Amino acid sequence: MPEKIKFFIDGKECLAERGQTIYEAAKANGVYIPILCHFEGLKPVGSCRICSVRVNGRWMASCTQPVTEGMMVENQTPEVEEYRKAIIEMLFVEGNHFCPTCEKSGNCELQALAYRYQIMVPRFPYLFPRKDVEAFPTFLLDHNRCVQCRRCVRAIETKDGRKIFAMKNRSGQVRINVDRKLAAKMSEEEAQKAMEICPVGAILKKEVGFKVPIGKRKYDFKPIGSEIEEKSEGVKNE
Amino acid sequence: MSKPVIATASLAGCFGCHMSILDIDERILDLIELVEFDKSPIDDIKNFSRPVDIGLIEGGCCNSENVEVLRAFRKNCRILISVGECAIMGGLPAMRNTIPLRECLEEAYLHSPTVAPEDAVIPHDEELPLILNRAYPCHEIVKVDYFLPGCPPNADLIWEALTALLQGRPLKIDYPILKYD
Amino acid sequence: MLFYDINKPNFMQGFLMSSIKRLLKKYGKNRLHLITFLKELQAEKGFIAEKEVQKLAEALGLSMTEIEGVITFYHFLTDKKPGKYVVYLNNSITSEMAGMEEVARSFEQEAGCRFGETSADGLITLLQTSCIGMNDQEPAALINDVVFTCLNQEKVKKIVAWMRQGKPVQEMVEEFGDGANRHELVRAMVKNNIRKAGPVVFGDFKPGEAIRKALDMAPEEVIEEVKKANLLGRGGAGFPTGLKWEFCRKEKNGEHYVICNADEGEPGTFKDRVILTERPQMVFEGMAIAGYAVGAKLGLLYLRHEYTYLKKYLEHVLQKMREEGILGQNIAGKGFDFDIEIKMGAGAYVCGEESALIESAEGKRGEPRDRPPFPVQKGYLNQPTTVNNVETLATATQIITHGAGWFRSMGTPVSAGTKVLSVSGDCEKPGIYEVEFGLTIKELLEMVEARDTLAVQVGGPSGNCISEAGFDRKICYSDLATGGSIIIFNKTRDLFAVVRNFLDFFIEESCGWCVPCRAGNVLLRKKFEKIAAGRGTLQDLKEIEAWGKIIKSTSRCGLGQTSPNPVLTTLANFRELYESRINKEADFIPEFDLKEAVAEACEITGRKFTEEHEHA
What we know:
The structure holds three protein chains of three kinds.
Chain A: E1 5-9, E2 12-16, H1 22-28, E3 52-55, E4 58-61, E5 72-74, H2 78-94, H3 109-116, E6 133-135, E7 139-142, H4 151-155, E8 165-168, E9 175-178, H5 180-184, H6 188-197, E10 203-205, H7 226-237
Parallel strand pairs in A: 1-5
Antiparallel strand pairs in A: 1-2, 3-4, 3-5, 6-7, 7-10, 8-9
Chain B: E1 5-10, H1 16-22, H2 27-34, E2 36-37, E3 52-58, E4 61-63, H3 64-76, E5 77-83, H4 85-89, H5 101-111, E6 131-136, E7 146-148, H6 155-167
Parallel strand pairs in B: 1-2, 1-3, 3-5, 5-7
Antiparallel strand pairs in B: 4-6
Chain C: H1 16-27, H2 34-45, H3 50-60, H4 64-71, E1 85-90, H5 93-97, H6 100-111, E2 124-129, E3 141-143, E4 146-148, H7 153-165, E5 194-196, H8 209-216, H9 219-228, H10 241-250, E6 257-262, H11 271-278, H12 280-294, E7 298-303, H13 311-323, E8 328-331, E9 336-344, H14 354-361, E10 385-389, H15 390-402, H16 404-408, E11 418-425, E12 431-436, H17 441-447, E13 453-458, E14 464-467, E15 485-490, H18 495-509, H19 515-532, H20 538-554, H21 558-562, H22 565-573, H23 575-581, H24 594-605, H25 611-615
């Protein structure tokens, strides 16, 4: 077995596999680092920056940065948490997130992060950009809610490797652009996968909705990340 | 010693947040022991009779009258709290914010299927408040001291916030009571 | 053969599908050439049609949306039919200062349409673009890729009148600039304005000498010499060039590549344009030397779209070098093969960032990559790649010829040698200055004959805005680092207008990948405008500083990490300017203004806003 790397998160000694990212290694050690754009099994892209940590005074995205020997990672320090909170707030004002009308509410990862950080109001002014809602045979794409995490871009492809979702434009005009012809051929299952991989309510499968009642939704009672932290608690208690 | 005084108002809201205040159930009896109400739909007092300690604002600002009421609250309340999504971010009325005002008004008053075309008109009576170009969160118009999210905010959150304020202790929010819906 | 010429006569004859077939035949069915395909298709009729996107997608095994993503990423690619003449007016700050507004109004008046539109007769499209590297001869514009400098109302009138007569754009250029700008393959009105030729880049140069000498050395010796010379990257970041080459060489597996970064897009930088115009062979030899050092056989010159007018000339220089045996197979008879291909950019500032440049060179959206792996490990085509700036490579050539000792005798101990500066703004003699490192701002201001200077922007918008208190500071890596951009503002200028222009620039040029850069800068500008409008408080100043720090810290690449600098450096060096705009007593001033907020309703209903509404 290859030798493990020793590193530290907020002073806690951790072990990582060689080549593991800070995020993965933290998780394996029962430490939660908040993520939004990252999704297990997809190539990390470091687009949301919510997983930012500080190492030796340098900021880096823990979903893309590999662990190195002896690394001292700042994760839950006040400044790191404050900057993450600011990024979450940026996302809330950059789009049009009307939680009360959104069927992803309660299961939305952006909202769950805001709950975890107990955001009462964003520090930034709301931008209220004009964005569209597009309909495809099996799903809807609501650009108002899109956080441009690129999960759909990475996860949904045709069998011959063509992208159904891709980025269009740049700067604040960046949008997810769907290939109409290819999207028309998407099966119910693929639409379901697209909806599940979307962290927010931007991709919604048609003809279903509000299936899970309030009180039974993913983030109704436990904060996002608690599954990782509880595992760590369990280890401690053993 | 006189009791702390509370005032409340609903601007561009649906009164749901006020309902949630009532949702504190039997604790309302404790509340009455602790505080007095001034201007509020709860006691139907229309105007401030004195400067008050805490103002609870439901709803954002959609028209000039909302702005007027909000400014009066800021002037008369030592502590001002935005209660609910509409006060905090415009809420459902802000769904019009991405659509130009003219388009909204024409759709509602001229082209809607229930409008009789012969007397279709965009209301312009001088008695009406002037509608704002978009719905505004309260803190973009006056300084707001605290925020209680939710649509409506959980009654337990409102209770916790009020009791914390009255007892002068920091707010402690249990995870499940902070929600945006 | 690596080279192609979009202006060959047979190029224009093809029609839609045969064009695509011919392109695929010429370059192969490889998405690596996607941007080349798109540029060539666009050259035929001004835009890329949906049908072409579909055909290309089928041929390359891509979806249409992937290709649309590439088209919409770049300024100079479009899927919408433009006018016969497309004007891209430069909107950088130096253009603004030289009268861009007047020129823009003039274009609108003459063309009969606004910027962002095409005239009703379909003849003229008016667009704005970020810095095109002509800051010492503004206002400047690209019209169908031909450069027009020093524009004024009169010239605009003349140009639009010619357009109405159907005159070819190249024929509108009546006077040519100096030096190689007059060359028959360039024929541009662009001026070099070399005010001070230094001993390195603009010093004595005997073509072929450096590459021959390098090939007599071992690759490790070449690297050692460059390391000994302490050559630091001239693009601005200042990474040691020798070390970069060493890292690249050490990667044992795969092909190695050299890329020359000729995508200077930092507003106020135009030195690479002049170096490529007057010292192309010095740059190309530098690429070959780098290739020899790292073990590469192919070099790419990534040339920004704005410098398309230099392309044929540069290809001609490359061809001449091949004929002289100092490029291509068996260089100088010493058994080293190395050739150079020109890859054209398509208009995106962020492509100056090396990993974004590599993505773009691979025919994709120019979005930066995550690092590690670094380009020296996994760069172009995921192979070890050294990306060096134009001036860096030219300088390396001279270091090989004259030796590290000669080079280190100039400049300062940390910052050896010279730096080519492009100076623009408020001074008598804007242009190119090759100076030794260690020059103070004060000395520079005297040299360029600047008077009543309020501020000097060192390193472009991403750099530092220096006030008089900093005029004794030195231009060098340990004090004021710059990729070459120096913009001077005199005391008649409004620094708020400068900051606004820079913020707009970063917002426009953000690739949009990461949240802090994409959203944060828009919010930063909003806060800045609140302060500029006199509605700021001390709290707003605190917040704008804090927000700037968050964006700097958490952004993914150099663009985002420097984008708040216009605000942060002016706030640090001209704090009194900000303080004079805010209300220090107020603890809250809203951005909201009731009268403004009801103006639309008043207009729609025919009602009037009264005092009663305001004070009821």
